[in-house]
Amino acid sequence: MNIAFINPFRESVLQVLETMANVQVTPGRPTLKEDAVARGDVTGLIGMTSEQAHGSLAISFTQSAILDITTRMLGDKLSDINETVIDLVGELTNIVTGGAKRLLSEKGYDFDLAVPAVVSGKGHLINHKAKGAKIIIPFGMSSGNFFVEVCFQDTPPAKH
């Protein structure tokens, strides 16, 4: 996986959550992820394709983190993950990926985005469609943690 893909996602997460949810988040050190088990309780997953590469982004929120973000963004004080939270995770996944797409386009990558999917439940699996390495970036905030996974592989040239 091209290491240059990581920072655009990191930067987009910071911008989106600080701007839209008025929350300070602290990114941790990116590491290689060996399994498919989500580190959070609800995950948004979106595929991305370009002529040069394809892959996906997943954002996995712990319940405490996403409930705090939901309250900050929508004003709703919720005690459980429900349809409102699931919709918000899908929208955040879309917005973060759109921001990263813009930053990647400045580096010469023109990605098309799929529609985000959201999965919830303790111990759910995140199935990236690319065969590349999975990089996970932990983020901390006062109410909990969330995790961004990036997985890309080079797209082979089209056969003519």
* CATH evolutionary superfamily: CheC-like
Total number of helical segments?
3
Which stretches are poorly predicted, pLDDT < 50 over at least 5 residues? Answer: none
Number of domains: 1
Distance between the termini: 25 Å
Q: Main sheet, how many strands, which sense, barrel?
A: 8 strands, antiparallel
CATH level-two architecture: 3-Layer(aba) Sandwich
Q: CATH fold name, please?
A: Chemotaxis protein chec
The assembly state of the depicted protein chains is single chain
| DSSP strand tally | 8
Helix content: 25-40%
Strand content: 25-35%
Shape: globular
What would you call the structural class?
Answer: alpha+beta
N-to-C series of helices and strands: HEEEEHHEEEE
CATH class: Alpha Beta
Whole-number average pLDDT? 91
Radius of gyration over C-alpha positions, nearest whole angstrom: 15 Å
Description:
This protein is α+β, with helices and mostly antiparallel strands. The chain has a single domain (3-154), classed as Chemotaxis protein chec (3-Layer(aba) Sandwich). Helices cover 31% and strands 29% of the residues. Strands 1, 2, 3, 4, 5, 6, 7 and 8 form an 8-stranded antiparallel sheet that branches. A hairpin with a 3-residue loop joins β3 and β4 (53-61). The radius of gyration is 15 Å and the shape is globular.
Features:
160 residues, alpha+beta, 8 strands, eight-stranded antiparallel sheet, Chemotaxis protein chec, 29% strand
In short:
Helix content is 31%, strand content 29%. It is an alpha+beta fold and 160 residues long. A hairpin with a 2-residue loop joins strand 7 and strand 8 (144-154).
